[in-house]
């Protein structure tokens, strides 16, 4: 991924937090059928040997055959993106030397995929993914709320996936290359429009 130094993020803790905030990743493979991509919700875990991404795919998904044949994968997570209008820059009024751009937060993960069809893995995966999304709700739903026979039937239709992370790199393009007054203008503009990407921009202060 092309990254100017100002936009590069390499801190595993920060990158893991971004993935947790935006867990729907684009799983990209390059196997016998060519390049294939599917949106898949992931969990990220830190283990003794490094980070691991966990997910599951439908058994009918043709990407499973690609993973078995060519397990090296790329997963792209986009934590937010927003068009940046030059009208937010105070520099526009001063010099007029401004152009539109796009701000975004992205994490790219590369690693080796392992498939797992065991009942223990699948149930743990479903419970953990559900808890991640339901835990903040006033009345969270749990997998155990569904009939056990129904859950068992559903699990027969999926295959578990673990990706042993080899590299994880982020790009936070948040106007860091602009003067402080322009950064403040962009943050204020995003906040006024309710853009969640603004939360990743540091408050420039008074």
From TrEMBL:
Name the record gives this protein: FMN-binding negative transcriptional regulator
One Pfam family cited in the UniProt record for this chain: FMN_bind_2
InterPro entries from the UniProt entry: Split_barrel_FMN-bd, TR_PAI2-type
Domain of life, per lineage: Bacteria
């Amino acid at each position: 991924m092309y990254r100017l130094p100002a936009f590069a993020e390499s801190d595993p803790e920060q990158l893991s937090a971004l993935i947790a905030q935006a867990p729907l990743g684009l799983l990209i493979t390059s196997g016998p059928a060519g390049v294939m991509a599917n949106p898949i919700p992931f969990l990220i875990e830190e283990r003794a040997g490094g980070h691991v991404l966990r997910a599951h795919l439908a058994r009918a998904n043709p990407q499973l055959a690609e993973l078995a044949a060519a397990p090296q994968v790329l997963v792209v997570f986009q934590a937010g993106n927003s068009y940046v209008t030059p009208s937010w820059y105070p520099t526009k009024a001063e010099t007029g030397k401004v152009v539109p751009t796009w701000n975004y937060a992205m994490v790219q993960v590369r690693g080796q995929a392992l498939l797992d069809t065991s009942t223990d893995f699948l149930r743990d995966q479903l419970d953990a993914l559900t808890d991640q999304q339901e835990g903040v709700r006033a009345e969270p739903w749990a997998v155990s709320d569904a009939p056990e026979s129904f859950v068992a039937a559903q699990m027969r239709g999926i295959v578990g996936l673990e990706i042993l992370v080899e590299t994880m790199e982020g790009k936070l393009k948040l106007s860091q290359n602009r003067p402080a007054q322009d950064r403040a203008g962009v943050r204020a503009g995003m906040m006024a429009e309710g853009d969640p990407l603004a939360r990743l921009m540091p408050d420039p202060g008074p």
